[in-house]
Write a structure and sequence with these properties.
heterodimer, A: about 220 residues, alpha/beta, 6-stranded mixed sheet, 6 strands, about 20% strand, flat, B: about 120 residues, mainly alpha, 6 helices, about 70% helix
């Protein structure tokens, strides 16, 4: 009998501990403007690229549709968006970003626009290592009011989660050479660009992520 | 016997709680090669517009055969590829599909239809 009582208490404790594990830390971003705005469609402008690699803008642009759509938003077709800007004489992302929100709203009919800046994109080399790193920042703006609804930043790197190297300098140098060859062969930057973009556009209030959109079953629950 | 039951219940409870933590909503759309097709389009060098169109048509068949949802922008992008190859009928067809599946696209699709006719 005593054993059973003990078991029950133990179960209760474990359950509470697990629930606490699920429970999330307090959000740092103030979501009140975002929640009031209730955007259902998002226009992603071709990202401004501050890295030396000219492929960065459209590498990131090719990855934005999936995370935002799966979050429950309608994403303005990215190929057509890029084309529409070009046909209107805008080829530089910085000029596109400078377009008035009212004008964007008029042409695209989107509720919100996502302005992305790529701050790092590509491989950097040191004597004993090489790192492929992509860093992005994003800002979601209400196109009717011009208010900022959300801001975030993310990165993905080839050295994250890497085990501590063993085997001395010789082995390190060999690893570095192999990695440099691999990095240039397999278009690593594009892969990490996808990871960084997915992270930037992840949902979840606990991590200051995006809110779910109306097409998601989780809409309004965050 | 009773203890065994308790143990079993505990295990089940644990499993359920953990499953609740890990639960991910199933994907809303079937993506196939859409993102790499977008990448090919932006790079402009890797695949001809005709080859891109065929890949997207093949994927579309797969998505439809599986009874899954076509992602936002898919029909519009396919329409763009047809339009750039001069097939304005198929451009209009795909744009109409995008509009009917995603009414959020209406303003932009109408803008494109007005501007693509020249």
């Amino acid at each position: 009998m005593k054993y059973q009582t003990f078991s029950r208490i133990a179960i209760a404790f474990v359950a509470v501990a697990l629930m606490a594990g699920c429970a999330t830390k307090k959000p740092g971003w103030d979501y009140s403007a975002y929640k009031a705005s209730k955007p259902s469609s998002i226009l992603v402008l071709p990202p401004v690229n501050n890295s030396p690699d000219i492929t960065a803008t459209y590498s990131v642009m090719s990855f934005v549709t999936k995370p935002l759509s799966e979050a429950g938003y309608y994403v303005m077709p990215v190929g057509m968006v890029a084309q529409a800007f070009k046909e209107n004489g805008l080829t530089q992302p910085a000029d596109m970003h400078a377009t008035a929100p009212q004008k964007l709203s008029e042409i695209f009919g989107a509720d919100a626009a996502l302005y992305i800046t790529v701050t790092k994109f590509g491989v950097s080399y040191t004597v004993v290592n090489s790192e492929t790193m992509v860093q992005v920042q994003g800002k979601l703006v209400d196109l009717k009011t011009g208010a900022t609804l959300w801001q975030g930043a993310a990165q993905a790197s080839s050295v994250e989660g890497e085990q501590q190297q063993q085997g001395g300098l010789g082995a390190l140098l060999i690893t570095a050479v192999i990695k440099q060859v691999l990095a240039s062969t397999f278009d690593d930057s594009h892969r990490y660009s996808g990871m960084a973009t997915d992270r930037l556009l992840a949902t979840g209030v606990a991590n200051n992520g995006l809110l779910y959109g109306p097409r998601s079953p989780n809409y309004g629950k965050d | 016997m009773f203890n065994k039951l308790i143990r079993l219940t505990t295990l089940l409870a644990l499993a359920f709680t953990l499953a609740a933590c890990a639960s991910k909503t199933p994907a809303l759309y079937s993506w196939q090669g859409y993102q790499s097709n977008l990448d090919a389009y932006f790079r402009a060098s890797s695949l001809s517009p005709d080859a891109q169109t065929q890949l997207m048509e093949q994927d579309l068949q797969k998505i439809r055969a599986a009874g899954l949802a076509v992602p936002p922008g898919y029909h519009a992008h396919l329409g763009l590829l047809y339009g750039e190859q001069g097939d304005l009928d198929k451009f209009a067809q795909q744009v109409a599909l995008e509009k009917s599946k995603f009414p959020e696209s209406q303003t932009f699709m109408d803008f494109l239809t007005r501007n693509f006719k020249k």
